[in-house]
Amino acid sequence: MAWREVNFDGIVGPTHNYAGLSYGNVASAKNRGEVANPREGVLQGLEKAQHLMSLGMTQGVLPPHDRPSLRALRAHGFTGSDREILASAWAASPALVANVTSSATMWTANAATISPSPDTADGRTHFTPANLAAMYHRSIEWPVTSRVLRKIFPEGERFAHHDALEGGTHMGDEGAANHNRFCDDYGGEGVALFVFGRGAFENASDLTYPGRQTLEASRAVARQHGLRDKKTLFVRQNPVAINAGAFHNDVVAVSNRDVFFYHEDAFVDPDTLERDITVAMGEIPVRFVRVPRAAVPLADAVKSYLFNSQLISTPDRDGMTLILPSEVAETPSTKAYVDGLLSSGGPITNADYLDVRQSMRNGGGPACLRLRVALSDDDMSALGANAVLNQELISELQAWGSKHYRDRLMADDLGDPLLMEESFAALDELTQILHLGSIYDFQQ
Question: Which of 137, 179, 248, 263 is catalytic?
Fold first, then answer.
């Protein structure tokens, strides 16, 4: 039975804007207040998915969430019609409206942690939506994320779903952005590497920016997924990397199958980590590509998002391929490193540069925009909804985005009731295209 890794890309939402909400995200802070182009953003994301399809990859999509979140505003005591709620909230706190109108759900690497069936005790693929407790604008996401995942991966014989972890920031869970899986083949038993920023009940005095993922949250996800102790590792992210703006581990590291591509400063003791991974993998050798700071300074890695790339195995190419943001080609140190990497005879032999600038300006590269799920042919047959892409669906989504999305959006526009109504109309149509049913609060 054949296995594959399916990338479920987040569709950029119609309220995509640069509000600078994410403390510790250098790009988000730098571009705060700039003019965003949601239409360009959604089309760039779909073009990325289309490119991966052209390489023979199986691609899916996850929808944006309903924004502004009227459910969240009602929970803050605002009442009345939809327009009245938005008007009252905007008058009271434009900052609150900016938070509940964020389009950060496009970064589906934070949607959930997934453990495929070869790794779990009950032989099912397990999903835990991330609570994203560190940032208010993201902490409101998980209920809709859970509804979407349950529609696409129906609970039952093949798929198991859990609620997000309780416990606030002490159990802060940021999803797959801090999770790597090593394996020989996607259908073989793998090794899970959970990366955390701090202990839940410790004072991380070495951090300037928050360590969003806690060790205790990572251990809880591993337990409820039924992962095997000998095949599960936990390692702390280097505080130096977090303080440089690597708010998630996928800003400084990415893996695929038996290859681990990471920056020298991603972990405090990379030699020990490599030994631990090697032991856990047993007879399956792992190929480590450690990028020295002398070649790529940490600041350049964070600025260019060299490691927030997708590392993929394509059917028709020898070696692995990096899907990189165009900013890597525009940064001298990273471009020189990638050129040397491709000619080194190592496991990474191809690099494709893509334009995802609308996402990058908010601090999200190609890896942020996708949720990886290892699936068998039988798993694929059991999927619900219409979320796996083909050319016809890509074309329909491109036409949908071009029809509904604005080409200019600023923070002051978030109080516009017309934007809310345009967004809800677009999402209502999208649920019909993707056969998702009534997943949004405004549809209830």
Answer: 248
